[in-house]
Amino acid sequence: MGQLTSLMQIMQGAARKAGRALNRDFGEIEHLQVSRKGPADFVTAADRRSEEVIFKELSEKRPGYGFLMEERGEVAGTDKTHRWIVDPLDGTLNFMHGQPHFAVSIALERMGEIVAGVVYNPAVDEMFHAEKGTGAWLNDRRLRVAARKELADAVIATGTPFYGKKGHARFLKELHQVMGATAGIRRYGSASLDLSWVAAGRFDGFWERDLKAWDIAAGLVIVREAGGFIAEIDGGEDVLSTGNIVAGNEDMLARLIEKLDAAR
Ligand code: 2AM
Ligand code: CA
Ligand code: CA
Ligand code: CA
Fold first, then answer.
1. Ligand 4 centre and the CA of 114: distance in Å?
2. Sorted alphabetically, which PANTHER family does this protein's record hold (predicted)?
């Protein structure tokens, strides 16, 4: 990999700084303040601190850009063409349970298109990153999606709906279709890392419904730049707005969609 562009330096700098704050809180999770946004939808002081760090850092480096952030929501900028889409802690439940599988996710949207993304897991110091047109990377290693073509050889990631989230019955139908045809299913609990792991070839595919733009915006460009494909599960146009996402290489994507269609 050559020199990082100034945009990548800014995005990775913000992600690392937030990651250091998360690592400090991860070391003291027993003292962490926790509240709920839904029956099983938790938010902690670590989510807010991480978001604060990212907001401050990106506002300083690119004054005027707007934000869409999980905890503070939409923050309008004076520059209407650029917006950061941020999940300050993706995998809060893992974090709260001492599981080192969580991430900071930052994407840049330019005129409605995602042009850059970073997904950083500070517990293992893995920085997944991509800018449109220049490939996807894990730290300084170039990424390529897995080449497996058959579901029978594949490890597929998903996200199960939880207490208070809709879609349990539909998910079970989809799971029934997919799990009977694959080598293995995984549910690790961080959508941004699920997509990054597809880009890295650790998963052959991934599907989940009802995600938010901040869960998937950065992962989307990372998967595409690794040669992977993204689709909206029901054939809708805009995966960022519906949050119904399926990912994989071209063949795996087609096979997964076939199974998900059969679940209807
Ligand atoms: P979060 O940690 O940023 O809230 C997909 O499973 C997404 O749902 C996760 O990336 C996670 O993002 C969010 N989520 C919220 N509550 C959850 C729960 N109880 N179990 C799993 N995921 C949850
Ligand atoms: Ca959350
Ligand atoms: Ca999330
Ligand atoms: Ca989050």
1. 19
2. INOSITOL MONOPHOSPHATASE (PTHR20854), INOSITOL-1-MONOPHOSPHATASE-RELATED (PTHR20854:SF4)
Total domains in the chain come to 2
Q: What would the mean pLDDT of 123-140 be, rounded to a whole number?
A: 98
Three-state SS string over the chain comes to CCCCCHHHHHHHHHHHHHHHHHHHHHCCHHHCCEEEEECCEEEEHHHHHHHHHHHHHHHHHCCCEEEEECCCEEECCCEEEEEEEEEEEECHHHHHCCCCCCEEEEEEEECCEEEEEEEEECCCCEEEEEECCCCEEECCEECCCCCCCCHHHCEEEECCCCCCCCCHHHHHHHHHHHHCCCCEEECCCCHHHHHHHHHCCCCCEEEECCCCHHHHHHHHHHHHHCCCEEEECCCCCCHHHHCCEEEECHHHHHHHHHHHHHCC
Pocket of ligand 1 (CB under 6 A): 40-41, 70, 87, 90-93, 159, 162, 189-191, 208, 211, 215
Model ipTM value:
0.97
Looking at residue 172, which CATH number applies to its domain? 3.40.190.80
Same domain flag for 118 and 89: yes
Report the nearest-CA residue for atom 21 of ligand 1. Answer: 189
Q: Whose CA is nearest to atom 16 of ligand 1?
A: 41
Q: Whose CA is nearest to atom 14 of ligand 1?
A: 41
Q: What is the pTM of this model?
A: 0.98
The answer to whether residue 193 sits within a structural domain is: yes
Neighbours of ion ligand 2 (CB under 5 A): 92
Q: Which pLDDT tens digit goes with each residue over 74-117?
A: 999 999 999 999 999 999 999 999 999 999 999 999 999 999 99
- Ligand 3 centre to CA of 153 (Å) is 28
